[in-house]
Design brief:
The chain has 300 residues and is an all-alpha fold. It has a single domain (31-160, 167-228, 259-293), classed as Four Helix Bundle (Hemerythrin (Met), subunit A). Helix content is 80%, strand content 2%. The protein is built from 12 helices and 2 strands; from the N terminus they run H-H-H-H-H-H-H-E-H-H-E-H-H-H. Helix 2 packs parallel to helix 4 and helix 3 (57-80) packs antiparallel against helix 4. The N and C termini lie far apart (88 Å).
C-alpha cells in the first residue's frame, strides 16, 4: 500500500507530537512545590501592598521576609523527602524572580517616588527630573541583575548537597533582605513618636538618600563572582564549636537591645558587605604573596 501525500505530511507531525508526549512531566513533589508557591504568593502580596501607598510599605517588607522563609524551606523539604527535581528548581527560580527581584525593586521605587518631592525640595528647579530618573535606573538595574543572577544559578546549579555550601554572588534573598529591612526600619522610625530627635530625623533622611545607591550595590553584588557562605549549611547544620553558640547568643541579644527592625538591617547589610570585604582582603593578600615570590627567588 502506498501512502498518500496527506499521510506523508502527517508523519513528521506525529513524530513531533510523540517527542512532546515523551517529554511531558508526569509527577511532581507536592509539598515542596506548595512551599515554593507560597514564596511567589508572598512576593506578589508584597507588590500589592507596596502599590497601596506609604501605610503598607512596612507590611510589604514583612511579606518579603515570609517569602525568604518559604524559599529556605522548600529546598530543605525537597532534599529531606528525596524529591528534588528540575521542575522544582525551575519553579523556585520563577518565584524567586518575582519575590526577590521584581518585588523589592517595585517596593523601593514606590517608596522613593512617594517621598520624591520632599527629597528634592527646593532643588527641583536645578535637578529637574534627574533624581526621579536615577531612582528608576537604580530599581531597573536591580531587577536586571536579579534576573541575570537567577538565570546563571539555573545553569550552574547542581542537585548535590555538597555543592550548596556557598553561593557565587550575593544570593537574591539576601539582596532583597537588604532592601526590605531598610524599608521596614525606615517606616518604623518614621512612625515612632519617641524617634523625633535630631539624630533620628537625620537617620531617616540618610536612609532615603542612600537607598538608591544601596539598591544598585545589591544588584551588582548579585552578579559578581564573590563567594558568600550558605548560612544554614555552613553554620547551623551538624555539630559546631561552642563559639557558634556564643555568636548566636550575641545576635539574639542584639535583636533584643536594638529591636528586630534595626537588627535585620545590620544582619542583612553586614552579610552583604562581609563578602565584598573578604574578597578585597583576599585580593590584597594574593598580591602581597605574589610580590614576595620574586624577592625569594632572587635570594636563592
Amino acid at each position: 500500500m502506498f501512502e498518500t501525500d496527506d499521510e506523508q505530511k502527517l508523519i513528521p507531525r506525529r513524530r513531533f507530537l510523540g517527542r512532546i508526549r515523551k517529554g511531558r512531566l508526569k509527577t511532581i513533589a507536592i509539598l515542596p512545590s506548595l512551599i515554593t508557591l507560597i514564596n511567589g504568593i508572598a512576593g506578589f502580596t508584597a507588590i500589592g501592598l507596596a502599590a497601596k501607598g506609604s501605610e503598607s510599605f512596612a507590611a510589604a517588607g514583612y511579606a518579603l521576609f515570609i517569602a525568604m522563609i518559604a524559599d529556605m524551606l522548600d529546598g530543605r523539604v525537597a532534599r529531606m523527602s528525596q524529591s528534588t527535581s528540575s521542575f522544582g528548581g525551575q519553579l523556585d527560580s520563577l518565584c524567586d524572580m518575582l519575590s526577590f527581584a521584581a518585588a523589592p525593586a517595585f517596593l523601593v521605587l514606590h517608596l522613593m517616588m512617594h517621598y520624591h518631592g520632599q527629597l528634592v525640595g527646593s532643588a527641583k528647579p536645578f535637578l529637574g527630573d534627574f533624581f526621579e530618573r536615577f531612582i528608576w535606573l537604580a530599581c531597573v538595574s536591580y531587577l536586571c541583575c536579579g534576573a541575570i543572577r537567577l538565570a546563571r544559578f539555573n545553569v550552574e546549579n547542581t542537585e548535590d548537597e555538597t555543592a550548596h555550601m556557598s553561593f557565587t554572588g550575593l544570593p537574591s534573598p539576601a539582596a532583597a533582605g537588604v532592601l526590605a529591612s531598610m524599608v521596614v526600619f525606615y517606616q518604623h522610625i518614621l512612625k515612632d513618636a519617641a524617634a523625633e530627635t535630631t539624630l533620628f530625623v537625620v537617620l531617616r533622611w540618610t536612609i532615603l538618600y542612600i537607598l538608591p545607591f544601596v539598591t544598585i550595590a545589591a544588584g551588582v553584588l548579585m552578579v559578581t563572582r564573590i563567594r558568600y557562605p550558605h548560612v544554614v549549611n555552613q553554620y547551623l547544620r551538624g555539630r559546631k564549636p561552642m563559639t557558634y553558640l556564643v555568636w548566636t547568643g550575641i545576635l539574639l541579644g542584639m535583636i533584643y537591645l536594638c529591636g528586630i527592625q534595626l537588627a535585620m538591617v545590620l544582619s542583612f547589610g553586614g552579610f552583604a558587605v562581609s563578602g565584598a570585604v573578604r574578597w578585597v582582603w583576599l585580593q590584597l593578600r594574593a598580591k602581597k604573596a605574589e610580590a614576595k615570590i620574586p624577592a625569594t627567588n632572587v635570594g636563592m
